[in-house]
Please model this.
Amino acid sequence: MCHGLLRDPGFFVLLQRIDEELAEEARAGGFACGGVLHRADYPRKPRGCLTAFREDFSRRFSFCCSDCRKRTTSPSVRFLGRRVYVALAVVLASARHAGPTPAPPRLAGELGLAPRTLQRCCAWWRGRFAHTAWWQDARARFMPPVVNEHLPASLLERFTGAPAEALLRLLLFLRPLSVGRPIMLREGR
Model:
């Protein structure tokens, strides 16, 4: 299905271009103090991407204000929070492993994803992610409801189009998870 995208240079170019546009939007938004935002990218050591794109994916776009010195990091479709593996790899490996009919972890092996790391990713989808306030609000948009036990596979199924289009829509949908402080869990959970 979508795992061929992990070998598609065109898809990695598209993700890079989208992140550059998101970074430009963040820079143009600025801060209330009116200072100029300067590039202050975070270095990354991405895993799960094509070797030819490791250099392009080795920087997480971020900015620093010339006046108040506050930082802002733009949303991303390349990264899912502070994870080492690129978002594309985290979604696809987890979806293949934790879907309604789990596939053998061959894809995880190809990505160099250790079995324990894959288990942690799957547990994150079913646990921490499934209980965030953001997801509790966002999941109301889907009918029929997304089954939390099969995340992210059950979420990916809700996005229509060719595999590349569906995966891109999912990565765009997940971009709020890529920035800022961690999304808080609902009270009492």
Summary: Confidence is low (pLDDT under 50) at residues 184-189. Strands lie at 37-39, 42-43, 59-60, 62-65, 71-73.
